[in-house]
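Name: Putative high-affinity glucose transporter
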Amino acid sequence: MTPKIRSPYAIAAFACIGGILFGFDIASMSAILVTENYKVYFHGDSAVNPSLKPGQEGWLISEGPNATLQGGITAAMPGGSLIGALSAGALADRFGRRAALFIACCFWLVGSILSCAAQNIGMLVVGRFINGICVGIASATVPFYLAELSPSHIRGRVVSAQQWAITWGIMVFYYISLGCSYAADQDGRNTITWRLPWGLQMIPAIFIMGMLPLLPESPRYLAKNARYQDALDVLALVHANGDASDPKVLAEFELIKENMQLESGEGTGYLDLFRGRQLYRTHLVFFTQVWSQLTGMNVMMYYIGYVFQMAGISDTESNTKSSSIQYAINVVMTVPALIYLDRWGRRPTLLIGAALMGACMLINGIILATCGGPVDRSLAINADLPDTVSWRLPAGGASGRAMIAFTYLFVASYAPTWGPVSWVYPSEVPVQRLRAKSGSISAAGNWMFNFALSYFVPPAFRNLRAMGAYFLFFAFNVMMFIHVFLAFPETKGKTLEEIAAIFESNVPAWRSSQVLNDVHRADDLAQAVARGDLTVDAGKAPNAGPQTPESPGSEKKELA
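Structure predicted for Putative high-affinity glucose transporter:
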């Protein structure tokens, strides 16, 4: 048998390379779309500024793809991700969580080759679409794979590693692209500035394909397929350093078996997500990702170059360097969630994040509305601005610096709140028999709105004069604050099976923490094992294990 990695943190580190691919694909546009080489190659219509010498900044002028076309190029990745996310649940249930990740990496390699070798916009769009299929599968699979493996008291921290990996992927790829931009030639036609970064992005996929055999399979997937001894072995490996007699390991294994019995005979198809009480859970996992997109964060990720052009930064080098700061902020500010999310809880984190991000969006909208004006394209400084930038603050002014500051504050608010929780929460809420398919629906919500925003934002910046788009995202943040307060129960610190009790309690979401504190099923079982009152047999069917003497029948009702 191949040796398996046993530390949940090490497992997260390798599995979350899928998040790095996600980050690579986000940054693959934001760093490159403002460069002259990209604009010349994928547009073709360029002109020379006669007042400048060849090679000087601004000598060659190309607007690049127009707003609609650039929106389509950018949206190809989330479009493919939507397809990948919808297929992820079936792949993960049929072949296993690790196999789904391997399939995703195969798509990534093909898409990266096509993007790197792109001869025209059509080939680039196809490559990004195939890359997106990989990201969709990985973004749906990794969070619930980690949730199914992790001990309950560190589950938030472990699953949050997905978001941290995304932020690292964004930052690393952005700086790779920034470095390659210095290889630009005088006529703007040196394609290495974008071909090399899109080729290098294959490396992480090759690495994770080699590491997958060392990662353990999900114990809940194994139990679902009647491989109970294997499931117990994995729980012991990850939770107790291989000690299969550990009371907490045996208690969680017993909970998994009980849960399998309770769910036996119930539907496991996609339609079952929308039936009865499951509809409420499905709406939670879906809207967690939808609201994460509607915060406006991906505007900062995909189109930060346009945002800083609106703030008055004209030259490409200054724009690129200023943009890169937000990626470093994103990485650093995700760390507090890794450390404290299991202490903070999910609800407070989401509520505080929505309030802070809404304030930043409102302030930037006001700055643009009161201090900005239409772009005068007769001025030389505005000659090479894309048509997406139709409203702009004065170059070098205090208003532009204020807008940049609140853009950074927005990123610093998203990174420790909605960024990680949007992956953690949907992995905790579903019942086990539908967890993989719920992961698909959740990630599909992410990519559905990611696709819409990728395509919508450039025309919105042009037609709504930018501040209208900021006010719209402010409204979305207000709505998500209200929705979370009224509908999202707390889930921290309990096993995936214990979380079911919260949804059976019929207690309002804002009082769910009280119910959470009264759920001790896993602890009760662990104590029964330690006393010798409960014997757990991995070889028996899920309903064959003895019940604890304290409450012979109540446990099954609680876990329904």
